Amino acid sequence: MMAFWTEADFDDHEHVQLVRDRKSGLTAIIALHSTHLGPGAGGTRFWHYAEPKDAMRDALRLSRGMSYKNAMAGLPMGGGKAVILAEKNGAKTPEMLAAFGKAVDALGGRYVTAEDVGISEADMVTVAKETPYVSGLPVTDGETAGGDPGPFTAMGIYHGIKAAVQHKLGKDDLRGVHVAIQGTGSVGGGVARLLARDGAKLTLADVNEDRAGQLARELGGDAVAADAIMSVGCDVFSPNALGAILDEEGIARLDAPIVAGGANNQLARAQHGQLLAERGILYAPDYVINAGGIISVTLEYLCRQHGEPCDINEVRKRLAQIPGRLIEIWQESEKTGVSSDVVSDRMAQKLIGR
Question: CA-CA distances (angstroms) from residue 57 to 83, 104, 168?
C-alpha cells in the first residue's frame, strides 16, 4: 500500500491513525479531516475490505465527507470517520469494541463516534463504556433525539427527493412518481416506506434479495436484481447502499432525470458529477441530502454534554431545512453552469476555512 498521504483521497487530513490491538484482534483506522468547526464527528464502519488500501480510501473519503456534511448542516462539528477492518467471517467481539473505545478516548474528544454500516446501537453502548465521546446511544422515548440515526437519515432523504421532484419535474406531490431504490436496509427501507405513504411507485433492489422482495410485497412495489436497479427507467434513482457507484459505466446505465439518495460518496471520482450534469441529470449531493442522521446524533451528543434532554422537534426542524440547501445548490449550479457537486463542495470548503 502506498503512503496514505500520497493517495488521491488524502485532503490535508489533520490526523490519520492506525489502531491495532493484538489481544482483541482489532485493526482500525481513525481519520480526522477537519476540526475547524469543532470535534471531528462521524460514525464507525465495520466492514470486510478485500485490500487494506480500500479501508484507507474509505476512511479518507468518508471523513472528508463528514466535514462537508456537518458544515452544510450548520452543526458545530468537524469531520471524522473510523473503519474497523472485519475478517471475512465478519466476527465482532465486545473485546474488539472495547479496544476501539479506548482508542477513541485517547484522542481526548477530538473525535466523536457513532454507528455506521455494520455497527449497532448495542455496539455503541459497549464503546461508550470506555469513552464519553460517543453519540447515537439508545433513548427511552420517542420525544428525545438520539438512538438509531437511520430513520432520521431516511426522513432527510425523503424531504430531499420531494424537493428534487418539484425542482426538476414540477410536481408538488409524489403520487405516481417512480422511484428506484438501491438498498433496502435501515435507510433505504425507511425511504421506501415514506415514499409509499405518499403514493410513489417503487422498484426496489438489494444484495439481500429476500429483504428487497419482502419490502416490495409489503409496499405494493416491484423488486429487481441488485445488478439491474441502475438501468430501471424511472423518475428518481435513489442509491442507499455503498458508494462509488456513479462512474462512467454506472452513469451511462441510468435512465432517470434525478439522482437523490443516502449512500455516501456516490460519485466514484470528482469528474463524474460533471458527467451527470452533461446528461441533464439533477444530482442531490449525498452529504447534503443524507445529513439527517448526523443532525440527530450530534444534537443528542451536545445536549448530553450539557446535561440536558434533546427535544426531537429541534431535529425535525433541522431536517426540514435540507430541501432549502439543495435548492440553493441547484439554483447556483444552473446560474453558473458548474455541476451541483462542485457548487456544494465549494460552499462546504468555505465553511471549514479551506
Answer: 10, 20, 33
3-class state of residue 57 by DSSP: helix
C-alpha–C-alpha distance, residues 288 and 270, integer Å: 16
DSSP bridge partners of 202: 179
Contact indicator for 104, 113 with CB cutoff of 8 Å: yes
* pTM of the predicted model as reported, rounded to 2 decimal places: 0.91
| Region for 308 from its dihedrals, namely left if φ exceeds 0, alpha if ψ lies in -120 to 50, beta otherwise | beta
Q: CB-based contacts of 19: which residues, under 8 Å, 6+ apart?
A: 26, 27, 28, 29, 30, 99, 100, 103
Rounded to whole angstroms, how far apart are CA atoms 128 and 131?
5
Which residues are marked as active site?
Answer: 81
DSSP track, 107-120: TTTSEEB-B-TT--
CB of 162 within 8 A of CB of 323? yes
| 3-state class (DSSP) for residue 15 | strand
pLDDT of residue 281 exceeding 60: yes
Q: Which residue has the higher pLDDT, 182 or 271?
A: 182
3-state secondary structure 301-325: HHHHHCCCCCEHHHHHHHHCCHHHH
What's 167's DSSP letter? I
Handedness of CA 196, 277, 290, 241 (dihedral sign): positive
Distance of alpha carbon 124 from the chain centroid: 18
Cell for 220? 405494493
